[in-house]
């Protein structure tokens, strides 16, 4: 059996939640392998809407088991709120349907304060972090100071917590950041008690033993261009968002990877700071933002919008070995007379189809223009419903990227999906 992986190929917010929910109908198990509550995966079905942060997007499918993997950083407070909201609105028995890796790292309230303090100290160089404590928690993991989920069962968990908190308090004071480091402590310990209701597992054994029996769908968070190694560093998140991250984050061999589903929007967006070659600062960008409702699901921040960047997309396809593409939000371009796609960059006046090593410094996009299809795609339910101009556009992308587009989303709802 195989581990199939769903990945965002741009700067996040590609529509991973919707697609994992759609695909989860075919998978008995869904696993998150990296990231944390910086993710905001939106799902719409049966007139209901949810934004998932740490809970895998298989939660709404009958029978599907959901794993929060080793590579995830888990904030007990957010996780408790999210689970209670789902259970309250749907009656889904979350404690039975979610298992949590003992090796996943815990986000402490002081990790969030450190995130805010680092950003405040960075001034103009700030990352535009979601301020959920992601960077500081992964920093503690790598510097071997972190606390892991399994440790909540240790009799001296409180002491371990205090030891790490004391380190954080020192750093906060060095940064001159004024805050109350104890403000959310009671809530944190209450949420830690709530975590104990879940099965805490040795994720690598659990996942590999399940893989002997059934396929698993791994759900990526963020996107390739936010990857700690291959993204637009330093304006990235702190985890490995590419396909290889699924192996590390779940304890599964690369041999077991099957399909690699790569998701992209028919245009590009980015929240937070950092380079974005195809960004639009005019009314076209504003039109995309308005039609696509491009405001952060987690932070509410307006997203920066621009044309599709095939150079960056091809880079992401290569790094993750994407086998199948999924195109989202094509319907948001229904009313554009002309649609532009970036097919090469000019770097210091020289045309190239490579992402430069210093990721995007001095990059000028070179566009190929398409005549818009100018009709409503939202009612399409099969490929034969597509206008010719749209089919030609898809074929162009497949040729450029060398990978077939297998799923096309034409609206936020579960049903607004065309399989090819
Ligand atoms: P999903 O899973 C979009 C961005 C932040 C910031 C940078 C670092 O919904 O696609 P962090 O909080 O990780 O330290 O922020 O990464 N970012 C995202 N942008 N979607 C996300 O997740 C993101 N997670 C982080 O805006 O620029
Ligand atoms: Mg998001």
Provide an overview of this structure:
- The protein is an alpha/beta fold and 420 residues long.
- The protein is built from twelve helices and 19 strands.
- The strands form four sheets. It has a ten-stranded mixed sheet, with helices on both faces.
- Strand 3 and strand 4 form a beta hairpin.
- Helix 4 crosses helix 5 and helix 4 runs parallel beside helix 6.
- The longest helix has 18 residues.
- The mean pLDDT is 96.
- The site of magnesium ion has 6 residues, from loops.
Q: How many runs of DSSP E, i.e. beta strands?
A: 19
Please indicate the percent range of residues in DSSP E strands (runs of 2 or more): 15-25%
Bound molecules: 6-O-phosphoryl inosine monophosphate, magnesium ion
The percentage helix is 25-40%
Through-space gap between termini = 23 Å
**Order of strands, widest sheet:** 9-7-5-2-10-1-11-14-18-19
Structural class: alpha/beta
Principal-axis shape equals: globular
Q: Count of helices?
A: 12
Averaging pLDDT over every residue, what do you get?
96
Which ranges are low-confidence, i.e. pLDDT below 50, for 5 or more consecutive residues? none
Main sheet specs: 10 strands, mixed
Radius of gyration: 21 Å
Write a brief caption for the model:
The chain is an alpha/beta fold. It has helices at residues 16-23, 76-90, 94-97, 109-122, 134-142, 157-174, 185-195, 203-211, 244-250, 283-291, 310-320, 388-401, and strands at residues 3-8, 29-32, 41-45, 48-52, 65-68, 73-74, 98-101, 105-106, 199-201, 216-219, 257-265, 267-270, 304-309, 324-328, 338-347, 350-352, 363-371, 405-409, 417-419.
């Amino acid at each position: 059996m195989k581990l199939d992986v769903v990945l965002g190929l741009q700067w996040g917010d590609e529509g991973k939640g919707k697609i994992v929910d759609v695909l989860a109908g075919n998978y008995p198990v869904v696993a998150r392998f990296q990231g944390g509550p910086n993710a905001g995966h939106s799902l719409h079905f049966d007139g209901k809407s949810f934004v998932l942060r740490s809970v895998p997007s298989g939660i709404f499918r009958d029978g599907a088991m959901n794993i929060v993997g080793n590579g995830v950083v888990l904030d007990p407070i957010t996780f408790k709120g999210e689970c209670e909201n789902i259970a309250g609105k749907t009656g889904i028995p979350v404690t039975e349907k979610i298992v949590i890796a003992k090796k996943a790292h815990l986000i402490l309230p002081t990790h969030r304060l450190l995130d805010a303090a680092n950003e405040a100290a960075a001034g103009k160089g700030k990352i535009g972090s979601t301020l959920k404590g992601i960077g500081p928690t992964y920093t503690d993991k790598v510097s071997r100071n972190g606390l892991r989920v399994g440790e909540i069962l240790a009799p001296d968990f409180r002491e371990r917590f205090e030891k790490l908190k004391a380190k954080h308090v020192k750093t906060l004071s060095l940064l001159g950041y004024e805050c109350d480091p104890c403000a959310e402590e009671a809530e944190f310990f209450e949420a830690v008690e709530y975590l104990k209701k879940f099965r805490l597992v040795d994720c690598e054994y659990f996942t590999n033993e399940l893989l002997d029996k059934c396929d698993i769908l791994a759900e990526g968070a963020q996107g390739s261009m936010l990857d700690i190694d291959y993204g637009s560093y330093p304006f990235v998140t702190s985890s490995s968002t590419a396909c290889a991250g699924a192996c590390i984050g779940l304890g599964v061999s690369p041999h077991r990877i099957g399909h690699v589903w790569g998701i992209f929007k028919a245009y590009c967006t980015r929240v937070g700071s950092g380079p974005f070659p195809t960004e639009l600062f005019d009314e076209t960008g504003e039109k995309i933002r308005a039609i696509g409702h491009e405001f952060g699901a987690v932070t509410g921040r307006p997203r920066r919008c621009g044309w599709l960047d095939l150079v960056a997309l091809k880079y992401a396809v290569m790094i993750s070995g994407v086998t199948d593409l999924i195109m989202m939000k094509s319907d948001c371009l229904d009313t554009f007379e002309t649609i532009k796609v970036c097919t090469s960059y000019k770097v210091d006046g020289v045309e190239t189809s490579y992402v430069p090593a210093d990721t995007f410094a001095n990059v000028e996009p070179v566009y190929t223009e398409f005549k818009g299809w100018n009709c409503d795609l939202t009612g399409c339910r099969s490929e034969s419903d597509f206008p010719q101009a749209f089919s030609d556009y898809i074929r162009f992308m497949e040729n450029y990227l060398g990978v077939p587009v297998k799923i096309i989303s034409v609206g936020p709802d579960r049903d607004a999906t065309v399989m090819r």
